[in-house]
Amino acid sequence: MFTGIVEELGEVTAVEDLGDAARFRLRGPVVTEGARHGDSIAVNGVCLTVVDHDSDSFTADVMAETLTRSSLGALAPGSRVNLERPTAVGGRLGGHLVQGHVDGVGTLTAREPSAHWELVTVSLPAHLARYVVEKGSITVDGVSLTVVEAGEDHFTISLIPTTLALTTLGHKQPGDPVNLEVDVIAKYVERMLGHRAAPAATGEESR
After folding, report:
1. What is the sign, positive or negative, of the torsion defined by CA atoms of 10, 13, 15, 21?
2. What is the per-residue pLDDT across 106-163, written as a single tens digit (0 to 9) for each?
3. Which CATH number does the domain housing residue 157 bear?
4. Residue 21: is it exposed, middle or buried by C-beta count within 10 angstroms (0-12/13-18/19+)?
5. 113 and 71 inside one domain
6. SS (H, E, C) the chain
7. How many domains, the chain?
8. By C-alpha distance, which of 155, 70, 162, 63 is closest to 117?
């Protein structure tokens, strides 16, 4: 489990095509400190498993499903990426509960800079719209953010200077894809309410 607080702005140094998968090598001395084979590291919000590592970089295998359903398929050597290690049990929950399981890919459509912050608009896939609410949480490229406005096909977020300087969101341009993970609590609530409603409906029909 992650919290959406990016620890490091890393870089893709190599991408190896494995046919039905790809092997990425990523530079990130902060997240590789103390890393072991099999550990998890979130890369742009996608939970990946460490295959190998040295003092400042690690490799991770990415299967075709992940390449297709996230923006990782667009990465190339030189691409910058947000990196985060899982939060320790009992540690601070600085952002919100993030699984590292991407729900969909949006597109950054507009940036509106101001003196001390920037308003960013991101397109929202139709099947995710019901999970996004004003002042709720959403993860964008692994960054825990608060929704400013929630529309049917888009949402907006405000980025402070720290986020602009220390994450990929400071460099993304209109047209660039971003990984989206909605608040998992909303999905669980929806499923539980659906199960509760089903027996009630059946009971009414049998009267």
Report:
1. negative
2. 999 999 998 889 999 999 999 999 999 999 999 999 999 999 999 999 999 999 999 9
3. 2.40.30.20
4. middle
5. no
6. CECCCCCEEEEEEEEEECCCEEEEEEECHHHHCCCCCCCEEEECCEEEEEEEECCCEEEEEEEHHHHHHCHHHHCCCCCEEEEECCCCCCCCCCCCCECCCCCEEEEEEEEEECCCCEEEEEECCHHHHHHCCCCCEEEECCEEEEEEEECCCEEEEEECHHHHHHCHHHCCCCCCEEEEEECHHHHHHHHHHHHHHHHHHHHHHCC
7. 2
8. 162
Write out the residue range of the structural domain in which residue 36 sits.
6-82
Task: Summarize pLDDT for 186-198 with one digit per residue, the tens.
Answer: 888 888 888 766 5
CA distance 138 to 133: 9
Contact 156, 169 (CB under 8 A): no
Q: Residue 184: how many CB atoms within 10 A of its CB?
A: 18
200 located within any domain: no
